[in-house]
Amino acid sequence: MKHGEEEKHLTTKLGGLKTMPFVISTETFEKVASFGPQANMILYLINEYHMSNAKGANVLFLWSAISNFMPILGAFLSDSFLGRFRVIALGTFVSLLGMSLLWLTAALPQATPPQCNGLVTESCASPKAAQLALLFSSFALMSVGAGGIRPCALAFGADQLYNPSNPENKRALQSFFNWYYASVGLSFMVSITVIVYIQDAAGWVIGFGVPAGLMFLSTVMFLLGSPLYIKLMPDKSLFTSFAQVMVAAWRNKHLALPPMESDPGIWYYHKGSKLIAPTQKLRFLNKACMIGNPEKDIDMDGRAINPWNLCTVKQVEELKALIKVLPIWSSGIMIAVSISQHSFQVLQARVMDRHLIPGGLKIPAGSFGVFAMITLTIWVATYDQIIVPLLSKFTKRSRGFSLKERMGIGLAISCVAMAVAAMVESKRRATAIRQGLGDEPHGMVHMSAMWLVPQYSLIGLAEGLNAIGQIEFYYSQFPKSMASIGVALFALGMAVGNLVSSLIVGTVDKLTSKGGKQSWVSNNLNMGHYDYYYWILTISSVINVFYYLICCWDFGSSDNKNKIVWDEEEGTEDELELELGDHAKGVASH
């Protein structure tokens, strides 16, 4: 944090606990509003827009991919140009506009194709280009809005409380993070249960109207608190720093690298930095911090004249740290594919007995994802307090499993989850055929939807191990100033995973339907072979586990003796980055 910004925190009457109701209520309403429509969206696309199962799933995969990618762009705009307040304000407004358009698709009869009572969507009228344009515009606007809100909300709330001179500062931040995390968890639970129930019971007009109304409240609450907020100005983004290193290395490609044991004076670093010479890995990047001509590269104060021609050793090592974790990051793409399979499971649950107990509560098909969330929440809540002390007795390590072990176990459990999904679908399909429902895709199968709970729970456990382990691993390899990059990498992995999911579904549908055959991902679940589709994911996940082991072997040890000693300052905004990085992992795992 710059000195002027710190003075602003100390002398102004802005910020503080009085802003918390606005910040937390804004985030709560936004989360319920944005995630509420997603859980049941596959049914809306199939029933109202007459899309095939495969096409509907692909649309949702692509929507999720964009939604996971946009926060990276939002973080860049916030850090480099607009600041957190403006990005969040724009995000809430754009999200409100997107949800209003989505509500219009349900409220206006002209926005969807004519109703169709056919058992298969092939016999129904296809949506017109204008109708699809309205629908996809709503998805795009919601993704852009999420890109403004999600990367900035946690840090913006922390900005309101951060005051290094206050001895109660750390406790206030911890309290805020706890309330923030609780509000996120509650929001997801309400989205998957209450909003989905409203959609099933009252229809799409009210089911989309409620989230739009909540998004309106979110926007109003955030803007009402505007006079009270601390609004920090943007600073240089890490993305800009990475770009500078690559450009400088390219521009200095003509320079000859010195011997390994060379004079540190040829390297550019700031006064007082612990990093005075670059490491020998990825040596071609070292040219970015190599002083070729002191008269042209350095000014009278010892600063680089052009940061796009000469970077510090620290900047170079930060980019190297990012590149070094990319192979392990890529191994997380396949688990993102497994996590994103909710759409097909909704279609399975729709034709199964969804009563929690015979004659009791009937769970909406789109609400079964709550079991994954419950499992993930239980794991997060019990890991540090119960599981770690038990594991430490056997592993002789204070943290139980190492971070790479946690990630690997999560990948292995995701394999089991997909195998269970394949076996359950095989049983459901066989039961449907025995009942004579082969040509009745909407016929109710005499099989409890509770059979789907184990695969949801396993996915929740796999996510709790791998996703949170991923972010902690990135954080352990990066300096505190790069804490947000770990969350950004996880979001990017989810985005790529959604794209891979779309590619797999499209490929399976195209290859298995050749020659007039029934596609494995047919609109008729009973005639298709979704169990084969899940086995493809299982085999791919198993291969990915072996790929992960190779990546871990290539990465080497994470012992302290092999770590770079970064320039870390105490009593500065690095403390806030530390807190944000630690707590963002829980939020990102959802």
UniProtKB/TrEMBL annotation:
Q: Which GO terms describe its molecular function?
A: transmembrane transporter activity
Q: Sorted alphabetically, which CDD domains does this protein's record hold?
A: MFS_NPF1_2 (cd17416)
Keywords (alphabetical) are: Membrane, Transmembrane, Transmembrane helix
Q: Where in the cell is it found?
A: Membrane
How is this protein positioned relative to the membrane? Answer: Multi-pass membrane protein
- Indicate the transmembrane segments per the record: 60-78, 85-109, 129-158, 179-198, 204-230, 363-386, 407-424, 483-505, 532-553
Q: Which Pfam families match?
A: PTR2
Tell me which GO cellular component terms the UniProt record holds: membrane
Q: Which GO terms describe its biological process?
A: oligopeptide transport
The UniProt family comment states: Belongs to the major facilitator superfamily. Proton-dependent oligopeptide transporter (POT/PTR) (TC 2.A.17) family.
Put simply, this protein is called Major facilitator superfamily (MFS) profile domain-containing protein
**Lineage in the entry?**
Eukaryota, Viridiplantae, Streptophyta, Embryophyta, Tracheophyta
